[in-house]
Amino acid sequence: MRVNHPRYPAAPGRPAAPSSARPAARGRRAPAEHRTRLHGSRTLRRLGRVDRWAFDRVAAARLPGLEYVLPRLSRFADHGVLWFTTAGALGTVGGARLRRAALRGSIAIAVASPAVNVLGKQAFRRRRPVVDLVPPIRIRWKLPTSHAFPSGHSASAAAFATGVAMEAPRAVAVPVAATAAAVAFSRVYTGAHYPGDVLAGIGVGALAALGTRAFWPAPPPAARVTPAGAEVVGRVGTVADDGLGVVAVVNTGSGEASGVLPGRSELAVETLRRELPAAEIVRCGPDDDVDKVFDEAAGRARVLAVVGGDGTVNAAARSALDHDVPLLVVPGGTFDHFARALGMESAAEAVAAYRAGRLGRVDVAYVTPATGRPGGREEHVFLNTAGFGAYTELLDRRERLERRIGKWPALAVAAVRTLRHSEPVELVVDGRERRVWLAFVGNCVYGSRGATPNWRARLDDGWLDVRMVATGRRVPRVRAVAAIMAGHLHIVPGYRAWKAAALEVSSRDGGVRLARDGELTSLPAAVRFGKRTGALAVFCPDAAMA
């Protein structure tokens, strides 16, 4: 009679097979269902033996130095402390991309942890390993009393590492993944889990992180652009490593300073001075005529560089188009949507793109009075988005509040007040009368479905991305607010979305107020949106080249 050894519990989810489960006597064929159950039971027993053999090999291993490191690392990962500390660090010192990585990793843990600890462990109820082969020096923790399968520590580690890898650059994702692998291995090395428990936890954690894409799509590292032709590259000439021929205009008011630390624009200027000493740097203050400053700089530049937020980049793009010079976008503002779309998160990455001489062509969207012409003096360009309806009210309120309480708190307060009090406006859109509560026009098609989506797969597709909430007499405010916060505006009644090469909008109550790349503009009662495909030459990283 075979007896189960106390060191080797049954495989997860399966008790030891009773004697009645023996195969049928020779000459008598067992039912198909019974044969399938026997085959599955044998497979699980084989897997269990391999799992216990692997645990014994790890328990018997002697890895000098790791006897002290791995137990402490495993303990630090209790209750996700290691990962939430890492998320806090990424969100504090990193840019928008690292903040997204930290948030996605934290959300993945919030999904994986209950899936393993509440559902998985209760479903399988596997006993913990017997630790008689594990040296006592590795066991400096209280033995867990919960079930072993799957491993909760491994699930949290894999969830966070996968979430970070979906957003962060390789220089950040690789160390986080290595730390997660060390935590997973430490659970076997310290005797807390069998290898099978750890592998199952890793699988659950990775799936939880990948599942976040269902409600929050992961953006590409950089939107694709069309490589510039030989005529543009020839006009620029050989790129000088010291920045000769570059004229950089700096908006000194971009990038909030904390009062102790310099703002993002000042940090970007220091990088330019250090890396491109021959470049000319022009400072543009709040009392200067921005359009005039950029026009004069573009007139004498071989490459026009801009340090500032999206509104400043918008002004630079207009001057670069007028003088037919390439644009170097250096992140230095609060949001930097266009720079991030190009795949550049820092001034150092912008300098690297310039030195590599990688030039691409991107679309420029514009809005002009219905009686105007593209390229005329009345044309207003935008590189990211234009909005009307409640969005202009939001920006009005934010500008009134931000000098008193700061940009981010002002944005939050303004959003709540706008969503509570805004009313639809009567407009005629492409010949159809609509009561528009919220409208968004994007330069190229955006990938997410929120009210103000922030990533694109391409910057040269030739399309306007139009999204609009046209309501009846009553705005569904609670549902609309929830949909906006969740990034799923399409569930709001009256939502419409379409692609267009052009769009005509007119108001019977007077002019049209528009927010272009975050800057408010007042236009006549009838306006037309359009595209200038591939009109602007920009420097971009290799990841953006199609």
From TrEMBL:
Residues 261-371 form the DAGKc domain. SUPFAM superfamilies: Acid phosphatase/Vanadium-dependent haloperoxidase, NAD kinase/diacylglycerol kinase-like. GO terms for cellular component: plasma membrane. It is a multi-pass membrane protein. Residues 1-37 are annotated as: Disordered. InterPro entries: ATP-NAD_kinase_N (IPR017438), Diacylglycerol_kinase_cat_dom (IPR001206), NAD/diacylglycerol_kinase_sf (IPR016064), PAP2/HPO (IPR000326), PAP2/HPO_sf (IPR036938), YegS/DAGK_C (IPR045540). GO terms for molecular function: hydrolase activity; kinase activity. The keyword Hydrolase applies. Residues 1-24 have a biased composition (Low complexity). It is found in: Cell membrane. It holds the Pfam family PAP2. Its main location: membrane. It comes from the Bacteria. PANTHER family: DECAPRENYLPHOSPHORYL-5-PHOSPHORIBOSE PHOSPHATASE RV3807C-RELATED (PTHR14969:SF62), SPHINGOSINE-1-PHOSPHATE PHOSPHOHYDROLASE (PTHR14969). This is Undecaprenyl-diphosphatase. It comes from Actinomadura hallensis.
